[in-house]
TrEMBL record:
Name of the molecule in the record: DUF6894 domain-containing protein
Pfam (any one): DUF6894
Native source organism of the sequence: Methylobacterium durans
Domain DUF6894 residue range list: 3-71
Amino acid sequence: MPHYFIDLHDGAHHIQDKEGFEAANPDVARERVVGIMSAVAQGFQADADHQHCVAAVRDESGTVLFRARLSLNFDAAE
């Protein structure tokens, strides 16, 4: 079964997945990314004007298969 890794980067910190997980196909990895990004969003701070996180999904060879981006921006009303 293929092995996938999900690395996270928020602009200041980079977390490299060293363990990974087995999944039947990239669609399963995509579902896992949605769950991770949901948890990341819950940790966003209300007092920050801009926050973001990028998740990169790699295969066993280290090739990035896709990236998911999550952003929260507060803009003043004009």
